[in-house]
Amino acid sequence: MLDTRHKLSDSASLSKKEIKEWIIQGPNLNTVQSANQFGDYIGRRLKKVKIGKTKSGKDKFVDESVSTSQIRQVFSKMKMIEAKGGISDPQNRIDFLMIKPLLAYAVGRHKKTGLDRLKDRLGWAIETVLESERIPEQEKRFGNFCKLFEAILAYHRASGGK
User: Fold this and answer.
1) Domain ranges within the chain, ordered by starting residue
2) d(CA 14, CA 30)
3) Where do the DSSP E strands lie in the chain?
4) Which of 66, 130, 134, 143 has the fewest Cβ atoms within 10 angstroms?
C-alpha cells in the first residue's frame, strides 16, 4: 500500500474525464495543459514530500516522484507497438493490454505515489482505447494514447523529472 498521508498524494490533473476526452477526440488546449500539470506533479512536486517528523524533531521527507528509468520499459513497449503498426494486429493488441500489468509491476517494485497515479491515468486511457469495438476507431484512439503518454513524459522531463 502506498503512503497517502501527505497532501500531494493525489493530483486533480488529468481527470478520468479529461483522459477519455483526449483519447476519443485527441488533444486540445485544456487537456494539454492538464498533461503539463500532471507531468510537473509526477516529476517535480513529488520530489521532496514532507511526511512528518523524525524522532529528533526534524522534518522527514520522501521522494515520491517518477524517474524516466522507472517507466522506460512501459514507454518502450508502447513505442514498439506503434512501430509495428498499431493495435489492429492481435498480438500487438495483447501487448498493448499488457501495459497495465507492466505499470502495476513498476508500482509494486518502486512504491512511488507518482507511479501509482501514472498507472491510474494510463489504465483509464487503455480502457478508453479498447472501449470501441471498431478496429479503425481503436487505431485512432491508440494514436491519441501514444500522444498522451509522450506529452506526460515530455512535461515530466521539462519540469525536472530525471
Assistant:
1) 16-158
2) 10
3) 49-53, 59-62
4) 134
Query: What tens digit of pLDDT does each residue of 92-133 get?
Result: 999 999 999 999 999 999 999 999 999 999 999 999 999 999
Q: Are 70 and 115 in contact (CB under 8 A)?
A: yes
Grid coordinates of 99: 501495459
| pTM of the predicted model as reported, rounded to 2 decimal places | 0.88
Count of Cβ atoms closer than 10 Å to residue 122 Cβ: 23
Report pLDDT for 106.
92
The rounded Cα 152 to chain-centroid distance in angstroms is 7
Q: What amino acid occupies position 84? A: K
CA angle 96, 121, 136 (to 5 degrees): 45
> If we measure between CA atoms, which residue out of 25, 50, 70 comes closest to residue 161?
70
153, containing H or E segment: helix 135-158
Q: Which amino acid is at 161?
A: G
Angle, helices 113-131/135-158, rounded to nearest 10 degrees: 160
Q: How many helices (H) and strands (E) does the chain have?
A: 7, 2
